[in-house]
């Protein structure tokens, strides 16, 4: 007797097989979800700068204030 002959007697794909399938697939797919949505949080770099109160009330455009307030030198920690 071969394995293929036993399968029709046991049942092809019942409740237990579905349960085992989903219990194996759901935990395996959760890390894939985190990797997929990781691009949303890691790819974009928002523009940010320090607000200097002394420059706020001057007659400068936003771009001029940004040019004065953003450091142009790279400093490593």
From TrEMBL:
Q: Where are the transmembrane segments?
A: 20-37
* UniProt keyword list: Membrane, Transmembrane, Transmembrane helix
Q: What name does the UniProt record give this protein? A: Major facilitator superfamily (MFS) profile domain-containing protein
Q: Which organism is it from?
A: Strigamia maritima
């Amino acid at each position: 007797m071969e394995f293929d002959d036993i399968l029709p007697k046991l049942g092809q794909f019942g409740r237990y097989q579905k349960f085992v399938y989903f219990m194996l697939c759901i935990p395996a797919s959760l890390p894939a979800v985190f990797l997929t949505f990781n691009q949303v949080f890691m790819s974009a770099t928002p523009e940010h700068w320090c607000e200097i109160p002394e420059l706020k009330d001057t007659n400068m455009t936003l771009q001029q204030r940004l040019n004065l307030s953003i450091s142009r030198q790279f400093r490593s920690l």
